[in-house]
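Tutorial handout. Part one gives the primary structure; part two gives the three-dimensional structure as C-alpha cells.
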Amino acid sequence: MSCTSTRRRLGALAALFALVLILAAVSPGLATSDSQKVTTSFEYDEDGWRMTVNFFGKIYTVDSKDLEPVEEPGGEDPGGEDPGGEDPGGEDPGNENPEHYVTRKSGKLLPGTAYETTYYVIESNKPGPTVFVVGGVHGNEPAGYLAADQVANYRISSGKLVVLPRANVRAIQQNRRYASGDPDLNRSFPQAATETPDTPLATAIWDLLKAHKPKFVIDMHEGVDYYKAGTGSVGQTVIYHPNSEAQATATAIVNAMNAQIQESIRKFTLLRYPVQGGLTRASADYLGTYSMELETSQKQTLSTRIDLQLKMLGVALDRFGMTPSDDIPILDGDEYSGPWPRKLAEGTPFETLMYKIEGSEPGPSVLVVGGVRGAEPSGVQVANELLNYTIERGTLYVLPEANKQAVAAGKKYTESGDLNRQFPQSAGAPATSPLAQAIYDAVDDLNIEWVIDLHEESGYRSTSASAEGNSIVSHPQPAAGYVAQLLSQLLNKEIASASQKFVPLASPVKTGLVRSTADTLGTNSFYVSTSTSDSLATRKAYARLTVDYLLAHLGMRDIPAEQITLAPGTDYATPMTVIRSAVPGPTLMVVGGVRGNDPSGPAAADVAATFDVDAGTLIVLPRANAKAVKAGLAYVSADGDLNRQFPVSSTDTPKGVLATAIFDALKKHNVDWLLDMQEAAGYRSTTAGSLGNTLIHVPGDVTTPMVNSLVAKLNTGLPQGQRFVSLAGPVTSGLVRSSQDVLGINSIYLSTSTNDKLESRKALNLAAISHMMESLGLTAK
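Part two.
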C-alpha cells in the first residue's frame, strides 16, 4: 500500500493516543504477573504502521490499513477565528505541489501529415528509469495500441514513461499490418550503425527515442495464433534482445504470467532476438536500450489480450520500481495556470515577459514574437504596440523581447549564441539553451496554434535569391503555406514596386523557433522578415499589417482602420482613412473636397470612412483640399486649383505639395479604382453645357461598363430631366484624368447637381460608392 502523509499523521496520533491510555491505566499495584503486564510494540515502514498492545493479557492490534484518511476542509480554519485575520505563518499548502506527483505532457510526431500521431511523456518527481512503450506499430494488432492508450494515463511512482500508443495511424485506420503503399514499419529501422530509418515515420519515432534516451523499450504486438501451436506465429511470447537486464525482466514477465494460466497452449514462451529492422532490435543494437516485444495471441478475446498486455507491462514496471497508482496526483504539464504576464526563463539572466490578451469568445490561439534577434527593432516595437490590442475571439499571446539581453545590447545575439538556432530539432528533444526551452515549453503548454515570428533581413527576396528581406517563410504544411501566400498577397497590395514585394517561402531553418514548433508541436508557424533596405517606419508598418491580416483571417478581430495624414506638417495636411480586409480584392479610393465649395463630397466621404469591407481595401480622402474646404472656396487663390496640378504624362510630376501627397498615396496603396466626387450647376440631361449629374471618365473596356452600371443605378427613380449622363474626357491635369492616363487607375469623376439639396447630393454620392463597392466585391457594411 502507499503510505500517504495523511496516514502518517493518523499513525502518529493513534500511537500517542494509545500510549496515553496505557499510562493512564497502569498503576504501581497492578502489574503483579505476566498476564497483568502492559506492553506495547510499534512497527513502521514505507507501507504503513502497526501497533500491538498487550493490555493485562489481552492483545489489541491497530493497523494503518484499517483507518481511512480524513479529508481536511478546503483550506478553512478547522476551528476558531484567527484574531489577527492573517495567516499566522508559512505558505498556503494548497499552492504547493504535493510531495509525490507526476506531470503529463503530450506532443505530436509528423504533425499536419497523414501519419500525425500523439505521444505522451509522464514523469514522476521521484527519480527512476525511463521506459518507452509503443503500440500500433502494426495496425491490425489492436490489443497493443488499445492497451497503450490506457498506459498513456498511468501515474508512475518513479522515473519517466514515454508512451506512443498509435505509432502507425494510417495502418490502424486501414486495419492492416502496414498501410497500403507503405513498407512494414517494423522493418524500417536501422540494421547497421551507419544506417538511418527508411521512412519519415520511422525517423520521427527514432528521433523520439534518441531524444528521451530510454533505458527500456517495450513494444506491444500480437500474433495470429499461439506459439505453442507450432504454426509459426509468435503469439503468447516475450521476445527480448539478449542481455542480462532484458533477459531478467522478460523472464520475470513470463513466470508471472504463466503462474496465472492453466492451459498449456496459452502459456507464454521466452524467445530471443527480435527481428532485424524492427524497433526493439534496432534500439537495443544502436541505442543501447534493454528491449523486448510483448506478443499476445489473437486466438483469445480482445479484452483478454488487452488485459494480458497490461499485466505484462505491470510486471516490468513493478520490477523497475515504477508501479503505477491512481493515488498519485497528476499535474497537467500541457497547461499553465500561473500569473500573467508570464515570466519565461525565470530567475536566469534571460528572464523575459510574455503577455496574454483574451477575447470574450472562444477562438484560435496566436503567439506574436519579437526580439528573437536583438538588432531587429521593428518586431520588438510592433510586438510592444500589440499589448494595447483588444481581441474579440480566441487568445493573443505576445512575447515582445524574446532575447531581452540581445535587445538591450542592440545586437543580433550575445555570447549566449543565436537564439534562433537553439530550439528542439525533433519531437521530445531538448532545446540547447534555457531561454529557447522556456519559449518552446510555453508554446507547448499553452497549446498555441499559430506562431508569427517578426524579423528583419537585408535586401529584397523578389530581386535576389540570396536575400531574405520582404519574405514570409512558413512551415510547409497546407494551412501555414496557404496563409503565407495569402499574407504576401495582401501585403503586396500596399507595395507599388514589383522589386520590393513580399515572397512566400517554405522550410525555415530547422533549429529556429518557427520550424521547431511546427515540426514538433504541430503549430502553424511563420517567419516574417521585413527588409532593412526600407525605413524603420515602413518595416513596422509591414510587420503590423501582417499581424492584423492574420488575426482578421482567423476571425479574432477586425483590422482597425488606419488614419493617415497626407502632407503632414504643412498648411495642406489632411486626413485619409484606409479600411482593409483579410480577403484579397481591389482597392477603391473615394475622394471628396478636391474643390472646397463642393460640400456633398466630404459629407458622403465622412460616412464612407465608417464602413467595413468584406474584401479588398477602401481608402477614403474626405477633404482633399482641406484648406479650401475650411475656407468654403473652390481653391485658395494663392495655391491655385488643385484639380489642375496633377501630371499629364509619365515624365511629368505634380505641381504642389498637396497634389504630390495625393498622387504618392495613389501609387503607394496600389489603387485600382478612383471615385472623385464633385459638384456643378444644372443638369446635363437638359442643358448641354452643364456638368451637373454627370459621370465623366476616360473610355475603356473596364471603366466604361462600370460607368454605365452607375448611370443605371443612380437614375433609378430620378425624373427624366435630372438623370445622370455619361461623358468622356475628364479635364487634363485633373485628378481623374491623371490617375487614369499616368497610373492606369480606373477613374471616375462623379458630379452631382447643385440644383438639388445637399442631402440629396450626399445620398447620390453614397449610392455611387455603395454600388461600386458591391460591383467590386467589397460590399459596404
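Part three, for discussion. The two ends are 68 Å apart (CA to CA). The longest strand covers residues 361-369.
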